[in-house]
Design brief:
heterotetramer; A mainly alpha; B alpha/beta; C mainly alpha; D alpha/beta; A: mainly alpha; ABC transporter involved in vitamin B12 uptake, BtuC; 15 helices; 75% helix; globular; D: alpha/beta; six-stranded parallel beta sheet; 10 helices; 39% helix; binds adenosine-5'-triphosphate; binds magnesium ion
Chain lengths: 362, 515, 321, 311
């Protein structure tokens, strides 16, 4: 018998954890001599009360949806993919190569080609750790951490020695050709007298992310493969009994996970920077962990958590802009969210379970 | 020694794991210098009770008296100080430590190891001589056989000068010879005045060695009786709560064509141990072949190989068609496609995904079938309907296919697995421990289903540790020992004693049984 | 490469290997006890910050050291609380701790010193003095051995010698003491320790605590030994290299020394020679940077001697489901 | 009000960004005006900060660091009423409301190169750069030319810290590189490496050799050890831009060299004893010649190579 009803597990536990994280964050803000209420108002104001604020919030959320889904898919197969960052970096490389070296006639084709390349590169970067886990039992957490660093070094090499335009100061590729620039929300929704989303980076990739949510939901809960991935995640011995190959599932799940992480690059490189810069992933790979944890590995949850983190990111940038609160506050909040919804989950869960067991007994 | 004060007395012990009430208000007295048996079905709460006595779990309520003194046992340290030693069902040894290191762990003398090690070496030598408990003190645990590992566990307890020794299902993993050896040791210990609690499922052992016996059922203590004043039949009844009638109505078998031909099947497990050492047998349509044997003699490996999730060499033919034994086409789904169904021994870790709903579990292994697909997606409506039918026909309770498998009781979980495998109408059905932990009512139903399948002309390979079940169902019995088949017997022409000898590896049964 | 250059590279290796070694041994205690720790980086960072901050304010490097250790141990306590008491996921807890340290150090530093998340430069008693070992001067004339003694062995700060002394000490503790036996046991089979009447929780907290202390020393060394102050993100991935070294060393103290020296050497070489020309083949500096990670993956893949982690590592000890 | 945006190194890098900050402070003190400032934390923030400041009505919006040139180019047209200033950046075409300010760093570096060569007793001087980009090679090149002008036989050792922006903020590497150069005989080291330079200056002081600071006057950091600092008067540029206010002339490049007092070398009470009158005389002579055009310091940008130094 479950100790707790499903809704409590899916909503109540993360909510309480989140409140705890928020409470501690408020304490931190107080400790550095600022007013948490004002800070929160400022964040809401900057992130949600203006269309360009939304433009940033949604831009960040798009990144986090992809990396969150990536972590979630792997989690379903009980694989902890901590390598989203590296996979996103490689995804960026794939997207950059596709944009720079293929003459796309129109953005609609470029986004397909770029997405394909980004996903393929991200997936390939996940393939090696996946293979080593499946075939040689190398702990995927450690290998993916290592691959994050190797990816950073690789991108560094490629940008500095191969793709950097001569004479350029920055380790970044040349700007992508005009035809690969994705329409931003401003392009799509702004009118002459109503400059919606002006200057904000949210772009058509957001819809790609929504599609990815739907596809991942279908994949995990509606397809045979998803059935097998979840089976493997719940019980590897049972999966083997049913003729589900652990090697295959490990590799396929990680390929999908790496591909999703790689897709993040479509948003960050093609949608925003319109070139590949050195830290294009900007830590979104790690935030994906928090997003997946909070979203309970469900696409709807991931979407909500990604929006929350998008809000935190944009709101944090506003804070840094108008107050003395450094942007690192967001890193702290993020850490607290991961800590409470992930590692200290049981701190909330155990008393709740007791409560429910007692209530049922009564 | 005071013979009127119990060595151990438990009063009103209760323990719940979340919603599961493992022990309910249990009281028990064990006299010093006796061997006290505890029996009960799987999950009855035996291990839980003993673990509480040993300080491994904390009781929710109840009191413990050692030699008449009320004693608090909040952790194992307290139990050890009170003179209690325990050999767990699952050994608690550090695999890559030496025997010596395992023995001194937690009972070291002083902060440095040197002294402790040399002292333990001496004591171990003494104990080995005293109780025939010799093990190489410098061997690594992972290199020892289970029997020897068990000796280390006993040595650990004796090294700590335990007066009360608890053994939880010690013979489950032992060969009959090893079990006999163990019982001799227990006899010696009793003779020295030590008190022993022995948990076992085997009534024979209870009758053979214990002085008193307690019976547990569903977390409750149903009776405590003097062994000399009871009988196996009475104990069995106490255990399950009603008269046990392990006879199945069935017509004589009418074996048909050879469906499965197995030749020289060999299998080496992950640890490099050869589990199957050249198995050959035939299975005919319309017969039930029962495989008897002590746990750990290769029956599980046989089912796993035939079920397609362990690699092997040799030859297996289904209706004359060679089946691949490793590589592509040798996995579980290929076997199912070929017409081999499989009810695995362990429903929790193999047969079911406990977190999946009943309807998801009802197609587990067959989830790739075309009938469950609709385009790229799975056809959930079809699967649900299918599952509802199975649940109704097999009388699974509660009849709610949206409930997670973990929320069904053991017997009903088993029915879900059986329904799934039997309704497929496989040509060959592999069944492992069909009624482990299942109540009597369900056992009868399950047995009927198995016999019905046989009567429909299917071939059934049955593995069970319960000899009664083997006798009740089988048309032919094969006995396995140490990865080999010791012989085939007709159930009508053999008895438990002969099978027991075969299970112990004695082939010359006629002589042995007469001599 | 002439002898003197070689000495200098090795000297630099010793300096760069020291924080790795301390963090690696820290991880060794924790992981040998069954608690995986990918939060080494964060603990080091926190320690680096607080030791620099306190050393600056008080002018005492010792007070700085203690403060650094306290910061690191505090994060260890969180890790212990999450992964031992509340049986959470140790990896997730480690990730959280890394973020927490990265954010809090800058946040507090900015609030405290208003210098963009760094501490002011340390002067005088706020830094570790380099220790000149006896006779270093007089012996430096002796060919070969003299310079080795004077340049390489002598002239480091106290913490360097502490780090190197920790290697035999750790070996001795693990393999020759009761505490070590229990520590190793609790990482392999906590249930065996539990039923032997020893507290699993206590042992694991002790191990995590030691891990915190060593990470604290590592961080202090970075900020007050190797450098004269804290700058944002100054650990720069050293915690992860230490983790890599730990796997490379197969969780053994002497091997850990070897692994850290190797990785330190790689860093020293990569620093001095950006691109290494091996007779026509140029090894780009990025390869040198990534080499520790690549080597670790190779080891993990089991192609060169398999690294088997402690059996109960990463799993919380759960008795009742 | 004006606004000031620092680059990733942060406001208090004791160097480039801090110079900008000092200029703004001076303006604030002298005029009693107020300004808004912010440090960048990530690439994606640049454009956002520009827009938010423009929308909030700040002008001029002054940015320190070449990386802002592109974002400014992107946003300038959207805010025609706002003036944008960028220091160190380059654009093929300068928009109407943008002012780009550049410095002749090679000229200043030439002068400190001379001082280094005159100070050196080992005939070896060092250069430690931050991220390996043309701008930093530009520094190194001027430095090497100055050193060789004093002593044609001098050895100039040059190292770059790295190839990514992290190279601006890695004092540990700065220390190790300095130790390596000292091992190779260098007794004066010029650090043009942002925060990494802090490690270089520290190590020079610890090891008893001389160092040369960059951008801001860093002489005070280790009095008696920092020989001088190559001043890049970012502070002046910021001060001028802020003072210009609404009337600031935009749409052009502004280049500040020795002639405009945009670069130079620092002499103050912290290093007065290190620099003799002879040294000053020699340097002042060269400075005059450069201003008059009699002496040309070759720019690395001229053909992406340096006559006095191999990279
Ligand atoms: N650690 C645990 N956490 C939660 N539930 C448990 C735990 N251990 C046992 N249980 C539950 O408590 C009940 C009693 O289990 P216990 O192991 O005591 O039975 P047992 O009589 O020893 O059975 P067996 O003969 O199979 O060993 C079962 O329902 C079991 O699932
Ligand atoms: N380890 C466990 N964890 C969670 N729930 C458990 C566990 N063991 C048993 N349960 C639940 O406790 C209830 C009783 O289970 P149990 O197996 O004891 O049933 P039972 O009365 O023995 O029935 P049956 O005779 O059919 O096995 C069931 O709902 C079962 O799912
Ligand atoms: Mg049991
Ligand atoms: Mg049951």
């Amino acid at each position: 018998m479950d100790k707790m009803p499903a809704w409590a597990d899916a909503v109540l536990v993360p909510l309480i954890s989140l409140l705890l994280a928020a409470f501690l964050s408020a304490l931190v803000i107080l400790a550095i001599g600022e007013n948490p209420v004002d800070a929160f108002k400022l964040m809401v104001d900057g992130a949600l009360m203006r269309s360009s604020g939304w433009g940033y919030t949604l831009y960040y959320a798009t990144n986090f949806i992809f990396t969150g889904l990536a972590v979630a898919v792997a989690f379903h197969a009980r694989l902890f993919n901590i390598g989203g960052e590296g996979q996103a970096v490689l995804g960026g490389l794939g997207a950059a190569l596709a944009c720079l070296f293929i003459p796309w006639p129109h953005w609609s084709l470029a986004i397909i080609g770029g997405a394909f390349a980004a996903a393929a590169f991200g997936a390939l970067w996940a393939l090696i750790p996946a293979y080593l886990q499946a075939k040689r039992g190398s702990h995927i957490v450690i290998t993916t951490i290592m691959f994050n660093f190797i990816a950073a070094a690789l991108l560094n090499y490629v940008l500095v020695n191969l793709l950097k335009p001569a004479g350029s100061m920055e380790p970044a590729t040349a700007n992508f050709p005009e035809a690969t620039h994705l329409p931003s929300f401003q392009d799509m929704f702004a009118t002459a007298d109503n400059p919606l989303f002006r200057g904000s980076p949210a772009n058509v990739t957001f819809f790609l992310a929504l599609i990815a949510c739907v596809l991942v939901w279908l994949l995990i809960w509606r397809t045979r493969l998803g059935y097998e991935i979840r089976a493997q995640g719940h019980s590897e011995t049972a999966a083997r009994y049913a003729g589900i190959s652990p090697v295959r599932i490990t590799i396929v799940a990680m390929l999908i996970s790496g591909g999703l992480a790689g897709l993040m690059a479509v948003n960050a490189t093609m949608g925003e920077a319109e070139r590949l810069v050195i830290n294009a992933a900007e830590g979104a790979g790690f935030i994906g962990i928090a997003v997946a944890l909070m979203g309970r590995n469900h696409p709807v949850g991931v979407l909500m958590a990604a929006l929350l983190f998008g809000f935190l990111y944009q709101g944090g940038a506003e804070l840094a802009l108008w107050t003395n609160i450094p942007r690192e506050l967001i890193v702290v909040i993020q850490a607290l969210v991961i800590l409470f919804t992930g590692a200290l989950d049981n701190m909330v869960r155990m008393p709740l379970e007791k409560l429910f067991v007692k209530r049922r007994a009564a | 020694m005071n013979d009127t004060v119990p060595a151990i007395e438990l009063k009103g012990i209760s323990k719940a794991f979340g919603p599961v009430q493992a022990n309910k208000d249990i009281s028990i007295r064990v006299m010093p210098g006796t061997i006290h048996g505890i029996i009960g079905e799987n999950g009855a709460g035996k291990s839980t009770l003993m673990s509480i006595l040993y300080g491994f779990y904390k009781a929710d309520a109840g009191e413990i008296y050692i030699s008449g003194r009320k004693t608090d046992i909040p952790d194992s340290q307290a139990a050890i100080s009170a003179g209690i030693g325990m050999v767990f069902q699952h050994f608690k040894l550090v695999q890559n430590f030496t025997v010596l290191e395992n023995v001194i762990l937690g009972a070291e003398e002083g902060g440095l190891l040197n002294n402790s090690l040399s002292k333990a070496r001496k004591v171990l030598k003494q104990l080995a001589e005293e109780y025939e408990l010799s093990v190489d003190p410098d061997a690594l645990i992972e290199d020892l056989s289970v029997g020897h590992q068990q000796r280390v566990e006993i040595l650990k307890a004796l090294y700590r000068q335990a007066d009360i020794l608890i053994l939880d299902e010690p013979t489950g993993v032992l060969t009959p010879a090893e079990a006999d050896h163990l019982f001799r040791i227990l006899d010696n210990l009793r003779a020295e005045g030590k008190t022993i609690i022995l948990i076992t499922h085997k009534l024979r052992e209870i009758m053979e060695i214990t002085d008193t016996v307690s019976v547990m059922r569903r977390g409750e203590m149903t009776a405590t009786v003097k062994t000399s004043e009871t009988s196996p039949e009475e104990l069995a009844e106490l255990m399950v709560g009603r008269k046990v009638l392990l006879r199945v109505d069935k017509k004589p078998a009418t074996p048909g064509e050879k469906l499965l031909e197995i030749k020289d099947l060999r299998h080496v497990d992950d640890h490099g141990v050869e589990r199957l050492k050249g198995i050959s047998l035939d299975l005919r349509a319309g017969e039930i072949l029962g495989i008897a044997g002590v746990a750990g003699n290769g029956q599980s490996a046989l089912l796993e190989v035939l079920g397609g999730y362990a690699d092997a060499t040799g030859s297996v033919k289904l209706r004359g068609q060679e089946l691949p034994l490793s590589g592509p086409g040798s996995d579980g789904s290929a076997r199912r496609e070929a017409g081999i169904g499989h009810v695995p021994e362990d429903r929790h870790h193999e047969g079911l995904i406990l977190d999946y709903t009943a309807w998801e579990n009802a197609i587990f292994g067959y989830h790739r079938d075309a009938q469950y697909q609709k385009g790229l997606l799975m056809d959930h409506d079809a699967i649900r309907k299918d599952a509802e039918g199975k649940i109704e026909r097999f009388d699974v309770r509660p009849a709610n296919c949206n409930l997670a498998a973990k929320n069904f009781s053991g017997g009903n979980q088993q029915k879900i697995v059986l329904a799934r495998e039997i309704e497929r109408n496989p040509d060959v059905l592999l069944i492992g421990q069909p009624t482990r932990g299942v109540d009597i009512g369900a056992i009868e139903f399950i047995h009927q289903q198995i016999v019905r399948l046989r009567d429909e002309g299917k071939a059934i390979l049955l593995v069970s540790v319960e000899l009664d079940e083997i006798f009740a169902l089988s048309d032919r019995i094969a006995v396995m020992f140490d990865g080999q088949i010791m012989g085939f017997r007709d159930p009508a022409e053999t008895d438990q004693r002969e099978l027991g000898l075969l299970m112990a590896g004695v082939t010359n049964t006629k002589e042995a049984s007469h001599g | 490469m002439d002898f003197l250059t070689l000495l200098q590279v090795l000297d630099s290796t010793v300096r760069l290997a020291t924080p790795l070694l301390l963090a690696c041994l820290a991880g060794l205690y924790s992981e040998r006890a069954g608690v995986f720790d990918i939060g080494l980086e964060g603990k080091m960072l926190a320690a680096a910050f607080l030791s620099a901050g306190v050393a600056y304010v008080t002018g005492s490097v010792w007070l700085g050291l203690f403060a650094g250790i306290a910061a690191s141990v505090a994060l260890s306590a969180i890790h212990g609380l999450a992964s031992i008491t509340f049986r959470g996921n140790q990896l997730i807890s480690g990730v959280a701790i890394n973020f927490l340290a990265a954010g809090l150090t800058v946040l507090i530093a900015q609030n405290w010193f208003k210098q963009g998340g760094r501490t002011p430069s340390l002067i005088g008693g706020g830094r570790w003095e380099n220790i000149t070992l006896p006779f270093a001067e007089t012996l430096s004339g002796v060919p070969v051995l003299g310079p080795i003694y004077a340049e390489l062995i002598s002239g480091h700060s106290l913490l360097v010698y502490v780090a190197f002394a920790m290697v035999p000490l750790t070996w001795w503790i693990l393999f020759r003491t009761r505490f070590g036996l229990r520590l190793r046991a609790v990482g392999e089979a906590p249930e065996a320790v539990d039923t032997a009447g020893v507290s699993v929780v206590g042992l694991r907290f002790a191990a995590v605590g030691i891990c915190g202390i060593l990470c604290g020393i590592a961080g202090s060394y970075l900020a007050t030994g190797l450098q004269a102050g804290f700058v944002k993100d100054m650990t720069a991935g050293r915690g992860f290299i230490a983790l890599a070294a730990l796997i490379f060393a197969k969780w053994r103290p002497w091997y850990a020394l070897g692994a850290c020296l190797l990785f330190g050497l790689l860093q020293a070489v990569a620093l001095r020679y950006q691109n290494i020309d091996l007779g026509g083949v140029v090894i780009p500096v990025q390869v040198m940077d990534a080499l520790p990670y690549i080597l670790t993956v190779v080891i993990l893949a089991g192609f060169v001697g398999k690294a088997i982690p402690p059996r109960a590592g990463g799993e919380p000890y759960v008795k009742e489901r | 009000d004006p606004a000031l945006i620092y680059d990733l190194g942060g406001k208090f890098d004791k160097s480039f960004n801090e110079a900008a900050y000092n200029g703004a402070q001076r303006w604030a003190e002298e005029t009693g005006g107020t300004y808004k400032d912010i440090e960048m934390q990530s690439e994606a923030q640049r454009e956002q900060a520009l827009r938010r400041f423009a929308e909030a009505g700040f002008s001029p919006v002054i940015t320190a660091g070449f990386a802002f040139a592109d974002p400014i180019n992107n946003v300038a047209a959207d805010y025609p009423d706002t003036k944008f200033v960028n220091i160190d950046g380059w654009l093929p075409e300068v928009p109407e409301n943008v002012l780009l300010i550049n410095f002749q760093e090679h000229q200043g570096s030439y002068l400190v190169g001379m001082l280094a060569a005159m100070e050196s007793k080992s005939n070896t001087v060092g250069f430690i750069g931050g991220m390996d980009i043309p701008l930093i090679r530009h520094f190194a090149c001027g430095y090497a030319q100055g050193a060789k002008a004093v002593n044609p036989d001098i050895t100039v050792i040059s190292n770059m810290t790295g190839t990514t922006p992290a190279a601006w903020n890695d004092p540990v590497k700065g220390t190790e590189l300095a130790k390596a150069q000292i091992g190779q005989g260098a007794d004066v080291i010029y650090a043009a490496a942002g925060g990494t330079g802090i490690g270089v200056l520290q190590t020079a002081a610890d090891e008893g050799i001389k160092s040369i600071g960059v951008d801001s006057n860093q002489n005070h950091m280790h009095p008696g050890s920092v020989l001088t600092s190559m001043l890049k008067r970012v502070d002046n540029a910021v001060f001028e831009a802020m003072s210009g206010g609404a009337d600031l002339e935009t749409g052009t490049f502004m280049t500040l060299g020795l002639a405009e007092d945009g670069v130079g070398y620092a002499v103050d009470e912290n290093n007065a004893e290190l620099i003799s009158d002879d040294m000053i005389a020699a340097v002042e002579d060269a400075k005059a010649k450069i201003i008059s055009g009699d002496l040309e310091v070759v720019s690395y940008y001229a053909n992406d190579s340096c006559p006095a130094l191999e990279f």
